[in-house]
Amino acid sequence: MRQARLPDGFGIRIDPKVRAYSGGRVLIGGSPTRMLKLAPTAAAMIGDGFLEVVDPQSAVVARRLLDSGVANPRPMSTPSPQDVTVVIPVKNNPGGLHRLLASLRGLEVIVVDDGSDVPVVSPALQNGCGRVTVLRHDTARGPAAARNTGLRSAATPFVAFLDSDVLPRTGWIEVMLGHFSDPAVALVAPRIVALDPEASTLARYEHGRSSLDLGRKESAVQSGGPVSYVPSAAMIARREVVDEFGGFDESMHVAEDVDLCWRLQESGWRLRYEPVAHVAHDHRVTFGRWFDRKLFYGTGAAPLASRHAGMVPPLSMSPWTFFACIAAATCTRLGLLGAVATLAMMVVRLRRMFTGLDQPTRIAAILAAQGFAGGAWQLASAMCRHYWPITLVAVVLSRRIRRIALAIAIAEGVADWVTHREPGGLGPVRHTAFKRIDDIAYGAGLWKGVIAARDFDAVKPRLKS
Questions:
Q1: Whole-model pTM above 0.70?
Q2: Secondary structure of the chain as H, E, C letters
């Protein structure tokens, strides 16, 4: 089914950031940016940016546009919520469990008690929603094992995994299920927002910058893209597909959701992130628990790198872009001259690809500038997050690097605030301060993991032409 034809009535919409050239026959966009050349008949199908599948030919064009990342799906039908079993792994969170169950009325639910100190009792849950089945692990085996136990006990075509500390918003399930009208889609996830965004100063930071919140923009889920994975705190999947892949890797106690996403992707299945659907999460907002959780997330990079070679680099760009960014970061006359010269060479090389198109020099210049801006953002972020121990050593040894690093830390923090700010969130100064602490915690966990594993693939840059 992963290569199945899109059904009649399924629609796709060209992303508004995609640029069209040569009468719509050339599309440039997506992430990473790519160029898509269309036959005149295919370009005519798109019209004002929307294409509805009506026959095998339009189905092929729609699939190509979706897979290239220049278009987003607009499903025209949806499975029924009655085709979904909700699996809830829980350990010692009765309050969160009852709150969640009250929002799931009419749905089939399997609660997997992963060794709670006080066992979950089925009769006490029945007033919360429809039919509830409770399964128990006598000893804690971890959330991956608990989800797998629920998965193996479900019988419906779809399984929704919801952690006990989340609360779905109205309409969440219907919006997500629509994506499964594409038979090649194996998994869909909602946007995870804050349950109580104003509980404290830290809660206001998490409201806009939680590791679970993947932003406002719909996207395919694929490594190297703007949404490279989705968290298992809330997702819906085809039961038979996930079961075929063995479910979550029970040997992993962190990043098992990333691993599942990438295994599905590597086998040709499509995954979608749907930010219109909201599921609220009870964030950790006491400083110690928050810092420990960020550090814990960082330790997941090493096991992921060992399972998925080349998919966990902090930096991924062409050697030309890397050199231009490093040269510009020196803030010297020679470095800036080298960056400009490198960008000029990139424009010349790119222009050769666009010979025959309208305004080839302009297109090449725009793409080179976008590549440089993206590379500069990656480098600034990695210096502050993944490589901060190395940056710290350089700062101690060099006054010049100290000034450059301070400027980058401030600029990157403010840019992050602009990108992620939410109503009621923090201002740029406090956001930047928390972002730097966030990065310190994650980076410490990253290096702790790679040193413990004696495997440094997770911190190796990937320079590709």
A1: yes
A2: CCCCCCCCCCEEEECCCCEEECCCCEEEECCCCEEEECCHHHHHHHCCCEEECCCHHHHHHHHHHHHHCCEEEECCCCCCHHHEEEEEEECCCHHHHHHHHCCCCCCEEEEEEECCCCCCCHHHHCCCCCCEEEEEECCCCCHHHHHHHHHHHCCCCEEEEECCCEEECCCHHHHHHHHHHCCCEEEEEEEEEECCCCCCHHHHHHHHHCCCCCCCCCEECCCCCCCCCCCCCEEEEEHHHHHHCCCCCCCCCCCHHHHHHHHHHHCCCEEEEEEEEEEEECCCCCHHHHHHHHHHHHCCHHHHHHHCCCCCCCCEECHHHHHHHHHHHCCCHHHHHHHHHHHHHHHHHHHHHCCCCCCHHHHHHHHHHHHHHHHHHHHHHHHHCCCHHHHHHHHHHCHHHHHHHHHHHHHHHHHHHHHHCCCCCCCHHHHHHHHHHHHHHHHHHHHHHHHHHCCCHHHCCEECC
Bridge partners (DSSP) of residue 89 are 112
The 10s digit of each residue's pLDDT in 158-186 is 999 999 999 999 999 999 999 999 999 99
Handedness of CA 345, 348, 349, 350 (dihedral sign): positive
Rg (CA), the chain: 24
Q: CA-CA distance, 124 to 329, in Å (whole number)?
A: 61
Q: Provide the CATH number for the domain formed by 81-283 in this structure.
A: 3.90.550.10
Per-residue pLDDT reduced to its tens digit, 130-145: 689 999 999 999 999 9
CB 255 within 8 A of CB 239: no
Cβ-based neighbours of 220, under 8 Å, separated by 6 or more: 66, 69, 227, 270, 271, 272, 273
* Spans of all domains in the chain: 11-74, 81-283, 316-463
Cα 169–Cα 171–Cα 173 angle in degrees, nearest 5: 95
- What span, in angstroms and rounded, lies between the C-alpha atoms of 376 and 318? 12
Neighbour-count burial of 450, counting CB atoms closer than 10 A to its CB (0-12 exposed, 13-18 middle, 19+ buried): buried
pLDDT for 394-445, tens place per residue? 999 999 999 999 999 999 999 999 999 988 889 999 999 999 999 999 999 9
Structure tokens belonging to residue 186? 């194996």
Q: Which of 245, 379, 398 is nearest to 315 (CA)?
A: 379
Averaged pLDDT for residues 178-207: 94
C-alpha triplet 33, 34, 40: angle, nearest 5°: 140
